[in-house]
Amino acid sequence: MSLDVSLQTDPGAISDDPVIEARRQIEICNACRYCEGFCSVFPAITRDKVFTDGDVTQLANLCHNCRGCYYACQYTAPHEFDLNLPAALAAARVESWERFAWPAGLAHLFQTRGEALAVALVAGCALLFALIAMLPGEGAGFYAWLSHGAMVAIFLPAFLLPLLAIALGLRRYWQEVGGRPVAVADLVAAFGSAARLKNLSGGQGQGCNFEKEDRYSDARRHAHHAVMYGFLLCFAATCVATILHYGFAMKAPYGFWSLPKLLGVPGGVLLVLGCAGMLALRSRADPALGAPGRSSAERAFIWLLGFVGLTGLLLYALRDTWLTGPMLALHLGSVLAFFLLTPYSKMAHGFYRLAALVREAQIVRTSAAADRSEA
Length: 375
Hints:
mainly alpha, 14 helices, NarG-like_sf, transmembrane helix, transmembrane
């Protein structure tokens, strides 16, 4: 198959600017269209001939880095076009997260020094909780080491301020990609796609090529499902415990057959298994197809999230022993570090990719309505 496209293909055409380079490769893909059925990115590419910076940002965040297009492409190196669309979109995607982050600069710091920063923050937060636990507590269970009031005073701002930072970033994203007021149908389509991880299933639902090169696998999709639903179960357990505490005066500790534990324990198990699976898959994946210089941040996010689940399970298993206090400090320290790093770690990708799915559903719905009106 030959490609008739009037693009500069000498080495000087390849730019160090992530957005410019992603745009160059997108334009070549739009001329070829061999991968049109692979995922949501390629049908979105075919809608336009000229791509603004906002279009590139939207396409980059719509990409889930399944890498199938790379292994199917005939224009990868040593071809003069030198295409590597997964890496180009990954670089543009990370650039957008760093640019939208608030306060500015923190995302780039974590992306380039992720593991060292995560370890230092977990250790510092754990030490803080260990010192607080030396003060007299109140109540039973964990509250004997750390009072409920102290937990609320620490974690409420640590939860709300990162949410504010993410909201500001999403607002900037929505403005750049030309987002419009969202309809219920857009949210239903986006959440449905996210719940199934549709873009990790490959063009024909056979899986992606993340760790198996030209072979298809659902392993990455399954690991992501475990992490996503494990996190949601843990979050639901926390919400239920809050409702029981304030709404029904039912204070912790809760027994195993209580709703917080029935949600939290399976959630923790899924988190640990999913994160372990993702780290294993990353060890077999080609780093040249991801965002350059960001592997430390991606690993840090995965092990930090898994560490939160693991320490939570160990804390429950070691309750009422002399290890409860140290394990509580370690678990709460990792949770606090996770919250504080959320807007700047890859945890933010869940918010931006959901926004990209909403925007894509919005565009598809608007185009369908226009086609019906013309008909």
